[in-house]
Queue: 2 jobs
Job 1
Amino acid sequence: MSATCVVELTRIEDIKRLEPMLRAYITFVSDALRDDAGTSFDPDVLLENTLSKLDGVVPPQGRTFVARQRARTIGMVFLRQSGPAAMEIKRLYVDPEGRGAGAGRCLVEAAIEAARAAGAVALRLDTTRNLTGAITLYETMGFAFRDVYPESDHAKDDALLPYMVFMEKHLD
C-alpha cells in the first residue's frame, strides 16, 4: 500500500465533494449503533445537519483534512471551535479499503497540530462506545475520557447520550 498524504481542504465547495464519504461514515455509525445498541437515527437528517454546518470547518473557524493514497481520498476529519479555548474533532472516518495504513492517526495528528496552531488549549471529541478502534486510537494519542461537554452535538440528545463517550486532550 502506498504512503498516506494528508491535505487540507479550505473551500466549502471542495468539502461538499466529500458527501459520499460523509454518507458512508453516517451509515457506518448508524449501522453499528443499530447492531450493537438496538438504536438508530435518520442518516439523512445527520447528513443534512453536517452539510448545513460546513462553514464551521473551514478557516478561520475550523479546518478539514483528508487522507489520500494514490490520489484517492480514503479518509477525512473535521475540526471546529468548541468553546472559547477548545476545538473539537468531528467525523473522523477512514474507508474500509484504507484502514490499517495509519491514515486515521495521520488525520488526528493534523487536527492536533491545527488546534495548537489556532491557540486551542484542549481538543475534544465525542464518539459512540462501540467504535472501539477509534477510541483506542484516541487513547494512544493522549486523549482521556471526560464528562460530556456542553458544545457537543449530543450533550442534550437523550436518545443517543447513553451510547456516547467524550474525550479530551490538553494541548499544553
Job 2
Amino acid sequence: MDAGSGLGPYDTPASAGFRFAVELVAWIAGPMAVARLADSGWAAIPALVVLVALPAVFSTPGDKQRVVVPVNGGTRVGIEWLLHAVAAIGASIAWPTLLAVAAVLLVCASLVTGTARMLWLLGGAEPDGD
C-alpha cells in the first residue's frame, strides 16, 4: 500500500472507485425506493441519513485512514454488502430498467474488483484493542 494513497493493503484505485460509485447509487436510489414504497418523500430523509452515516462512521483500522468508530472487518463487510444490496434493489425499484441494469452491473464490478479486500477484512482485520 502506498502510504499517501489512503487505500488499505488490499484496496486498489479500481476497487475503491467502484465501491464509491456503488455508495453514490445506494445514496440516491435507496431513498428514492423508500419514498416510492412508503408513498412519502419524507421517508427518504432517514433512509439517506442511515445510508450515508454507516460507511462514514464505522470503519476498520488499517483499512481507512480516518476511523470514527472502529469495527472488525466482518462488520465493515456487512455494511458494504448492505450498501451493495440497496444500490441494486433500490435502483430496481426506483429507476427505469436500463439504469437498474447498469446499477446491478456496477455492483457486480465492485464485488469482483473488491474481492481481495473483502477476503482480507473477513480474514481477521480487527480494530485496535480487540
